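Example (one chain per record):
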Amino acid sequence: MSDLIKYEEWGSLFPKNPDETITDLSERKDQAEKEGKPDFYYFDDRDMLHYYLYRETNINKKANRSERTIREYEKELLMMIKQMLENGPVMHLDLDTVDGSLFKSLGKRHLRRYQKWVAEESPHVKRRGSYSPATLERKTVIWKSFFSFLYKSGYIQKPIHEGLLNASVRSEDRPNRDLGPAEVIQLLDYFHERQQHITFSIIHVLVSTGMRNEELCRLKISDVRYDSISGQYYLSVLGKGSKRREIPLKSKVLDSIIQYRKARFRSVHFPNGSDEPLFITSTGRAFTPDGLAHYLQRILKGVDLPFVRSGHIKITAHVFRHSFAIISHLNKADVFSIMKALDHEDIHTTMIYLQKVLNREQHVVHQWNDKTLGRFI
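Predicted structure:
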């Protein structure tokens, strides 16, 4: 690997102005086409990485990757490059360098060895233990997507992404994220009794709306709106793909939002033109998705309730989205309605949320009648 560029020599891997970068790359791509050369003739590894991350794939700008998704892909691919360049000998990559390019030097066996090293021998595994199946699946999806793009674009000559092993998550490997209404009520009672209005309100809103963590963080004061026809308030929520949906607010949930604002010493009026974040931190800024996740993790760690202390359920912001689905199902909502409320594009995703509950409800033992084992059933 001595002929490969060292990680430190990549300079600033990710540009400060992605828009300017993608404009420059697009012009170079157009120039190559004009000269009858391959589209990416004037690109190197860094250029291909930048183009993959920041290019537009849809004429509708709102349908392109979100900033959060781009950051997630940036982080994962940066880690991959750094680990391959710095730990190649440990992984037994023994690359035959091609044009000083890392990507062009890789074969199927190299990706397979890297995947195995990440899963079994990486620093994270040695310090903290194995990655969860879901995390390995997410990483593999990103790697496959990137190297598939390099192959289809003609930058590399072989479909090396096919060397990656499948990392699909079995149903039994999925973390337990099931909090039913009884546990949710215990949590809400716990924080209500201790007058911890901030945490109470966040949990109350998440579980009553089914919002994603990042959707709650994006809410502005003007997103609380009044419907004069029904006489109720609702939230205008900006979801994935910049799609908006309306979520009705039960009166007590609206009260929780007002209580949150009062606890932060903020106005409890909701003017249409205000861009102020609805849920602010103690510093007056909007929560970031990671910031909200860490806040809840820190607070919930100290909760003295049996189902929290047991550790069987890792309670995160996303858990309350599962609770919304479960509670909706227990209230006889059909799966399609739950899917729409959660803003899922695929009903199978919704079914994953409900899988454990449905499996228990549909177990054959429920079909036994009282005479099956006489007085012993």
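Caption: The radius of gyration is 25 Å.
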